[in-house]
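This part of the workshop introduces the protein records we will be handling. The question running through the whole workshop is how a given chain folds. To make this concrete, we reproduce a full record directly below:
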Amino acid sequence: QVQLVESGGGLVQPGGSLRLSCAASGFTSANYAIAWFRQAPGKEREGVSCISIYEGSTYYAGSVEGRFTISRDKAKNTVWLQMNSLEPEDTAVYYCSARTTLGYFDYRTWPQREVWYYWGQGIQVTVSS
């Protein structure tokens, strides 16, 4: 059974930084991917970033590219999302999601919520002065 546990959220001032962590368990190989999504009040859940655990390929939404960095430790089954230059518009509940990539996964579809099989419980990030 796959489980995802997020940590690292909180309150930060505009321009500040936070690092989110997602610890995955239950995968039997490194053939999986993890994505971060976020959902602000009254808005749709949107893809923020994605990483291939086996290859380390990374993908970003345009709204965060250059400010956020996703990385992973394959041996520890952990993914981090380093968020810099945070803006009030980044305030949301952030979710870690995962799926197997055995067979074939079209990474062009990563921002689509429906292609992800497993979800964490979410963690609040608030950017405010």
